[in-house]
Amino acid sequence: MYSNNSGSLRDALCFLMDEEKGQRIAFVQFPQGFDNITKNDVYSGSLRVIMEVELPGTDANGGPLYIGTGCFHRRDVLCGKKYKKDYQNDWWTENDKRVKESAKVLVENCRSLASCSYEENTEWGKEVSSPWVLPFLYVIAAKYAYSIGELLWIGGTFQEWWNDQRMWLYKRTTSHLFGFTENILKLLGFAKSGFIVTSKVADEDVSLRYEKEVMEFGAPSPMFDILATLSMVNLFSFFGALKRVSMDSQHGVLDHLALQMLLCGLAVVINLPVYRGLFFRKDNGRMPSAITYQAVIIAILANIGAFLY
């Protein structure tokens, strides 16, 4: 990390050494800047909403979030120490006590959730056509309408918002999954944390595709295995559902599959760049052939298994 503002350290010290409120400040968070971002931010890497909306908003409500970089910490607070003028307690003991109490509450909640009686006398299991689905649809629509409004308000585009939704989905099905798995293996003692330095140098063809906002799939990666497989499963499932609805239109199949088809259709639309990389692109940024064959075979087997089940 580097700072392109030579006065950032001085600005941070102005907060941390404030005579009246300095003892209440744990860290000073600076926004992160990004260069070479395309018009519609194809990889959703600029974090515009976080930097321009959420951080200033939380700053007005008691303090910004820590985003992992661009931050100056007060050394002692990294251990959980509190800063109060009249604070004389043993903060190590206090911190351990809170951790134990939180763990106890978590265990009790998990036991309740895992019990067989957790869903008794609840509205779980309603049919999709039930009026109970309307409040959920309203919440979903309001949430996405609000997120679109946020991005447009700070000068973004609808395509940029759509790219952000795509990368949100991709991160949670790939990198977040890998991170979660690695952390579990680490806790169980089967793996150790590592850091691999990757090359940041791109050739001319890659740069041209990036400027045209064409996604890059050329480098083999387990992430692409997952993305390709899930996209093909959704594609086959969507067309399979369409076939079933067209053949059994008189038996109310659409009433039972309407929401599933909607979600599956959205997944198909959001994965259009993946389909182009799998079947239509001829440049070096296309999906490797081995991944394409693997994804198609797994998707076919998954749909056959679902049909037989």
UniProtKB/TrEMBL annotation:
GO CC annotation terms, alphabetical: endomembrane system; membrane
Key word Electron transport present: no
A Pfam family that the UniProt record links to this protein: Cellulose_synt
Keywords: Cell wall biogenesis/degradation, Glycosyltransferase, Membrane, Transferase, Transmembrane, Transmembrane helix
Major subcellular site: membrane
InterPro entries linked: Cellulose_synth
Molecular function in Gene Ontology: cellulose synthase (UDP-forming) activity
GO annotation terms (biological process): cell wall organization; cellulose biosynthetic process
Location relative to the cell: Endomembrane system
Membrane-spanning residues: 222-242, 257-278, 290-308
Protein name: Cellulose synthase-like protein
